[in-house]
Amino acid sequence: MTSATGKKNILIVDDSAFEQRMLAELLSDEPYRFSVAYNGYQGYQLALATRPDLILLDVRMPEMDGYTACRLLKANPQTEAIPVIFLSGADAVNERVMGLQVGGVDYISKPFTPAELAARIHVHLGLMRRTDLTAPAPVPENDKAPQHPDLVFVNAVRQLILDNLGSLPKLSEIARSVGTYREKLTLMFREQTGMTVFAFIREARIARAMKLLRQTEIDVQDIALLIGFHNAGNFATAFRERMGVTPTAYRQRLLEQRNGAAPH
Prior knowledge:
Layout: E1 8-13, H1 17-26, E2 32-37, H2 40-50, E3 54-58, H3 66-75, E4 84-88, H4 93-101, E5 106-109, H5 114-134, H6 149-163, H7 171-177, H8 182-193, H9 197-215, H10 220-226, H11 232-243, H12 247-261
Parallel strand pairs: 1-2, 1-3, 3-4, 4-5
Helix pairs in contact: 2-3, 3-6, 6-8, 7-8, 9-12, 10-11
């Protein structure tokens, strides 16, 4: 959302009022307007209400951290296109990777210079502008069907599961990763999808296995580990229960079909 003067709206999400003022001062010479939020959930709600052009998102915050807020932003069609730049005092590789995995376009470690911050914001706003110019005409806001709030949490969980099939955390940790708790997530997931979280995980693992068996030559035992089974035996049992054949037999059947379809 831009004003009549053409200023871009930057949403700053940080639990420190000092950090908020510092960021606004660092960018005071740039043509931006600023809005602020003090935690991830407040930032998510403010992004829904104001549709900022870009979000500067702190990672470590009480109540809801930056990663959780970004998952929700990217799971909601109304906010998924807003570029998110993470700002953090932590510079560990896994922290940076996590920021990109949950949907951030950039990750800037503190301390940083005003020139670096301004340059990165400028780059990502420019990328958004080019995307807007080449994208189809947007659907008017009034024509968009509102998304059920619970579905945003469910979609965020589904994406988290698909991104981490090989090493899924416990359900309670999955729930915390989107700012809720196990019992509420279980209820929301069943109401919005018609299946339990565990049923979705099982279906996702079998679907990923089928793709790997079809498109790669990875050993069945390695596929089992990649999709979260501790051993090939458990994987074979689950696959056979769902597909009627073992993974090896499934791959062999695909190979025979390809060979049969190949010209002689």
